[in-house]
Amino acid sequence: MKKAVSPFENTTFRRLFAAQITSLIGSGLTQVALALLAFELMGVHAAIVLGFVWASRVLASVIFAPIFGGLVHRLPRQSWLIGLDIGRAVLVLCLFWVEDVRLLYLLIFLINVLSAGFTPVFQAVLPDVLPDEAVYTRALSYSRLAYEMERVLSPALAGIALFVMSFHALFLLNALSFVVSAILLSLTVFPAMVVGERTGGIWHNISFGLNAYLQTPRLQGLLALHLVVAATGAMVIINTVAYVQGELGLSEQATVWVMAASGLGAMIAARLTPWLLENHFNDRNLVLIAGVIMLLPLVPLALTKPDVISLAILWAIIGFASSLVLTTSGRLVTRSCRKADRSAYFSANFALSHLMWLICYPLAGWWGNLGTNIAAIGLGLVGLLGVLLAVWRWPVKDVEALKHWHEEMDHQHPHYHDEHHQHEHEGWEGEEPHIHPHHHHEIQHSHRFVIDEHHAHWPRH
Asked: What does the buried/exposed string (b/e) look like for 141-171 if buried means 16 or more CB atoms within 10 Å of the residue's CB?
């Protein structure tokens, strides 16, 4: 078997990855600075502010990601991403002068809205840059690794920075990181956009990604596994502090190290995912096994009282398994859509996965107040439901080419001469893609099937 080349051999990917790293570091510094700013403004009630930070991130993703994803196919992606980076830089810079908690809430929400427009569109660019699936999988691995490393290292970097500057200066560094990211994006040669076939109104374009995603069986399975990731991840994020410092009576440092174990497990999985997919598992089997593995650490938590070392190992297992799902998800989304529709599909994946967190966060807090074992049982049952739904909705034989039927119709939209557009021209229609009235004969045929303008429903077999 020919070994896949490294994605870093691609200049465009190197610059995109550098932009991602830069903005991730800056965002990580801001998370620490926000906690300190919240304490300055609210004192012992700072948790209210931090709760709003988490809630606004999830709500902005659920509400605005499909809107941006449905409309961005009409805009130049490079300019869109650069504009959002500049917008985030300005908003983060404003945090430097915040003295009123209401203004802080507004700025945080707006930053998260812009991030909801940036992240999925950025994700949708990568498979255009790296069309070879093996190379793309390695790129997903590095991207996930960068995210997890930021999660583990940012508090340490912020702590070092605070030795020489005030926490307000961390906002300046984050603003600078977004500016550097924008510069890197401006120096990047983006692949030419493929003109899409969607011509409907605003609502049609906004709802397209969600409707298409929810009609695709493998993505239904992926969404169910996102529920497992959210259930187990919420257990880690919400209940670690209460268990380590409350039930075990240990220090804040112990909490930090236990949380870091989850990130370490995730980093290991991110590096192993390409090797596992190339040599041992297909996508479906790997992520379903990962879904089961995610649930196993909740069993000893429900039945016993693990010590801090055991808890760190359990959290590392959850981080490892969840990273297998999250790293593989990009392949599954890319496989399920046309090139022109990738932003809509990735935005739908971004929004719906955050919806799973919106469900699981309050459950983790509610059950956690009743006891760590109750939370483990409750969230374990939620995760088990997710695994069962994934097995049920995702066919074992996940073939891409499906036989299906088209009714006779007349319409017009931008199109290339693919398997659905074989017709005569009069000479005035121009180069492809072009728009003109055309006729579709009634036909039954088989090809790679995705939900798009010509395939509104998944075929039944």
From this structure: bbbbbbbbbbbbebbebbeebbeeeebeebb
